[in-house]
Amino acid sequence: MPCYAIDGVIPVVHPSAHVHPTAVLIGDVHIGAGAYIGPNASLRGDFGRIVIEEGANVQDCCVLHGFPQNVCRVARDGHVGHGAILHGCTVGQGALVGMNAVLMDEVVLGEFAIVAAHAFVPAGRELPARHLIVGSPAKVLRPLSEQEIAWKAEGTATYQELTRRCLASLREVQPLPKAEAQRPELPSFDVAPKLHLNKPVD
């Protein structure tokens, strides 16, 4: 993986984590046990520390950057969707940041909260646990149901399993000119039904 020291500070990656070879880690970055860092993610700890705790995932094309004298943290079992940007903020335990959402400096996202896709959270906001946050600028829409929290946990568990799959079998190869006659199939997964988070809870 592209991994760079700056000012003598070297990234730290737990052996049970998976960091895709195209992800970039710079400086004061800490990747915890069982964490997943997706393709083309950029974690730049050249001003402030970045911490990805145990079982958390940071998906494809995400950007995480630390603010000086601050920590950008994704807590245990946190879930950061494709293309999200986190700048000097904290994502609480079990929380989810939707695809292409932006969390600015000193934002604190409460435990098991969900930030919807494309939301923009201005600097300094404290967002409550177990609530749905939507919009640009973001607002707290409503509490989450237990079903929605369980749905998020199942999605995170799928990424934790993906970490194990990548450690076991991901390797760089040359593409085939055509598919094999007995092409292997990907394993099947029990996927939670899709929830429409913008709809009110009954």
From TrEMBL:
InterPro entries hit by this protein: Hexapep, Transf_Hexapept/Carb_Anhydrase, Trimer_LpxA-like_sf
Q: Which residues form a coiled coil?
A: none
Q: Which Pfam families match?
A: Hexapep (PF00132)
User: What SUPFAM superfamilies does UniProt report for this protein, alphabetically?
Assistant: Trimeric LpxA-like enzymes
PANTHER family under this entry? DYNACTIN SUBUNIT P25, GAMMA CARBONIC ANHYDRASE-LIKE 1, MITOCHONDRIAL-RELATED
Q: What is this protein called?
A: Phenylacetic acid degradation protein
